[in-house]
Amino acid sequence: MNSANTAESIASGAHSINATEPSDSKIPATSQPPLLQVTQLVRHYPLPRTHLCQTPQQVQALQGVDLRVESGRSLGIVGESGSGKSTLARLVMALDTPTAGTVHLLGRDLHRLPAAELRHARRDFQMVFQDPYGSLDPHQKVERIVTEPLQAQGRTSRAEQREQAAQVLAQVGLRSTDLGKYPHEFSGGQRQRIAIARALITHPRLIVADEPVSALDVSVQAQVLNLMLDLQQQFGITYLLISHDLAVVNHLCDEVVVLYQGRIVERGTPEELLFNAQHPYTRALVSAVPRIEPGRARALRAEMAQGAGEALRPMV
Ligand SMILES: Nc1ncnc2c1ncn2[C@@H]1O[C@H](COP(=O)(O)OP(=O)(O)OP(=O)(O)O)[C@@H](O)[C@H]1O
Ligand SMILES: [Mg+2]
User: Do the beta carbons of residue 109 and residue 103 sit within 8 Å?
Assistant: First the structure.
């Protein structure tokens, strides 16, 4: 397979999905500190010893990662399985502690904040997980699930929480009557909308999305990505989008970094990576994307363009 052809097909396909072009809000504010700054981030995990005399071994999941993301922009992280993408996401979300290095969000060093300040700061950064089936508690109603971040903050009344939940459900194209339902009553795409609503409810500045559409059908993927773009336009959200799929990051991201064995081996715009990849691993990643047959590609683009228009309509 020719990787240049593949790149062309991905790039042209993504552009015809009706992806919203970058708005003025995406222009970096040069005088402001970056929204997210990751400096020399390292995470080693100890491996269990198989016998007592063995020297302790460790997995070097991240080996000195630097990132800078301006407010209102989207950074894609791509890499093979085990390259450290989710480790990076957990450290940025302060769900895990780095071995070395720092994560600054809005100028605050997240891993050095006292617990109470970190809990309060959490309203500024939320996460959307890969699996819309596993990430929503099947025993809780949607109202409880979506208001969970507000409950953790502990500052709003039940009535206010309910009102805000109805608002964010409308923003993701669901109905306020859905608040009384359970996750099993929804499709995969609708569940991911519920997960996005839960992330939105604290008005975050940053959303970290770890493979948010890889469990969904391709037409539903486009709907969810278009919804994320639309929300970015409305609220100026910054995304850190993790994906193994270059077509997905091309749809949503201004810049992409390629992780390989815990290090960034390449960074650039999606087009630069698709058409002019320098690192052998990035080239392998580009050529690994399956080439879509022209007829099927047209049908998919039509579906995706329709998905864009329907992104905010209630789903039945
Ligand atoms: N809690 C942990 N304890 C020990 N090793 C871990 C832990 N979490 C991650 N690792 C190891 O760190 C490396 C990076 O894992 P990570 O989950 O970040 O990869 P990934 O890029 O997200 O992979 P995938 O695409 O499969 O989700 C892997 O070798 C993994 O086995
Ligand atoms: Mg992962």
Answer: yes
Whose structure tokens read 């698709």?
274
Q: How is domain 35-44+59-132+210-310 classified at the architecture level of CATH?
A: 3-Layer(aba) Sandwich (3.40)
Strands 74-79 and 255-260: parallel
What's the CA gap between 41 and 39, in Å, rounded? 5
Ligand found nearest the CA of 85: 1
Question: Is ligand 1 within 6 A of the CB of residue 82?
Answer: yes
Is 81 touching ligand 1 by the criterion CB < 6 Å?
yes
CA of 82 to the centre of ligand 1 (A): 5
The string of pLDDT tens digits covering residues 118-168 is: 999 999 999 999 887 788 999 999 999 999 999 988 878 999 999 999 999
Q: With a threshold of 0.85, does the pTM exceed it?
A: no
Domain ranges of the chain: 35-44+59-132+210-310
Distance CA 26, CA 152 (A): 30
Closest CA to 39 of 98, 81, 126, 96: 98
Closest residue CA from atom 18 of ligand 1 = 84
